[in-house]
Write a structure and sequence with these properties.
The complex is a heterodimer of chains A (about 180) and B (about 200). Chain A is α+β, with helices and mostly antiparallel strands. Helix content of chain A is about 60%, strand content about 20%.
Chain lengths: ~180, ~200
């Protein structure tokens, strides 16, 4: 057998084995394999190497099903959560814009929902001392800070809740305070 | 329509539904391709935990990037490519450390007498033979450069065509062939002691 011929053919044994040769080249290789034991052995070794490789690889990755099942659940969960929070943000924003009418307050959406359900308010303008009075007798139970506004909730002695709204507006040059109606909780 | 194009068409339909927020459709894609992505990641990284992490990341990344998927070349080549890139990135960070550890491990075991697999056909010995084979294969893979690893796994394990491999790895068909040739050559060298006269060690 001419060594040079084998050398030429040996490059094509892999693609021949993989079924990637055009018809012309394929039959050339096939003809050569029929008469050349060296190249035939090469072809067999290629096949066996592949089989052993698959066998070893399968052994290495065996038992992966339960792990992959868990993985599927985790992926599902992650996607569900990320999609949900994306939705919530936009819903919450729309809620706030409607009820707070022009004042932009960033509140956690759950709290916003609670506020809207319970509170009725009218807005008075009071001089800043109002805040001091409340500071003596009451304590702040909660406050929400937005970009331009701060809302503070005060608990009174009679367990009423008073809501004070403070906004920093550039026009008035400082702070304005408003007082919302007290009510019983 | 042949099987492959049918499958590809179904994938594209699921991609479309996923894009519109159908999480169930994406879950179907996960179900369909998770083992294959895991195999690629395992082939690249060589260990279970990292491969699982990369698999998870790959699907999440794919979900977020669905808008950018154009459809040329099929969903799975796009998905494999994501997994491949994530594996490469991971390896660049971790590889130095792991490589040193693994090289030490390899050096130690080279001194052991290799198990004669032909005599390990009986049951208790079979596990030893199996482990031996695992070790040899894993060693062989880890020795290969990164891109050669991807090519041999995609060809021998996932059965992708040269064309599909070329699309996945964004290389030319000729490059696929030469890398495959080299990888197979190295693999064969490693495995030749276990091949006797054209027969594999075990007949089942």
């Amino acid at each position: 057998m001419k060594r040079s011929r084998c050398k030429k053919i040996s490059r094509w044994i892999g693609p021949y084995f993989d079924g990637e040769l055009s018809e012309g080249t394929r039959s050339l290789v096939e003809e050569h394999l029929e008469i050349c034991p060296t190249c035939r052995l090469e072809h067999d070794r290629l096949r066996q190497t592949g089989e052993l490789f698959r066998r070893g690889f399968a052994a290495s990755t065996a038992g992966e099903e339960p792990d992959l099942e868990n993985l599927s659940h985790r992926i599902r969960e992650e996607i569900r959560l990320s999609e949900m929070s994306a939705k919530e943000t936009s819903l919450g924003q729309r809620f706030q814009e409607y009820w707070f009418r022009g004042t932009k307050v960033l509140v956690p959406s759950a709290l916003a929902a609670a506020l809207i359900a319970v509170f009725i308010f009218t807005i008075y303008k009071s001089p800043p001392p109002v805040i001091e009075r409340y500071e003596q007798n009451e304590c702040i139970i909660d406050s929400i800070e937005g970009e331009k506004n701060t809302v503070m909730f005060f608990k009174t002695l009679e367990s009423k809740i008073t809501v004070i709204w403070i906004s920093e507006s550039e026009e008035s040059g400082g702070e304005e305070a408003g007082l919302w109606q007290e009510f019983m909780v | 329509m042949d099987k492959k194009s049918e499958s590809a068409a179904r994938d594209l339909e699921r991609v479309e539904r996923s894009r519109q927020g159908d999480q169930e459709a994406f879950a179907e894609l996960v179900q369909k391709y998770r083992t294959r992505v895991y195999h690629l990641a395992y082939g690249m990284l060589g260990n279970r935990e990292d491969a699982l992490d990369i698999t998870q990341e790959a699907f999440l990344k794919a979900f977020r990037a669905l808008k950018g998927f154009r459809g040329g070349g099929g969903f799975y080549t796009w998905l494999y490519r994501i997994a491949y890139n994530l594996s490469i990135d991971f390896m660049r960070k971790e590889w130095r450390k792991k490589n040193i550890e693994y090289q030490d491990h390899l050096e130690q075991s080279d001194e052991e007498v290799p198990v004669n697999l032909r005599s390990s056909i009986s049951d208790p010995g079979r596990e030893a033979a199996q482990n031996e084979l695992k070790r040899v294969i894993e060693g062989a893979i880890q020795e290969l450069p990164e891109q050669h690893r991807a090519v041999i796994v995609l060809r021998e394990i996932e059965g992708l065509s040269y064309e599909e491999i070329a699309k996945t790895l964004r290389i030319r068909r000729g490059t696929v062939m030469s890398r495959l040739h080299y990888a197979r050559h190295r693999l064969k060298e490693r495995l030749t002691p276990y091949l006797k006269d054209g027969e594999i060690y075990e007949k089942e």
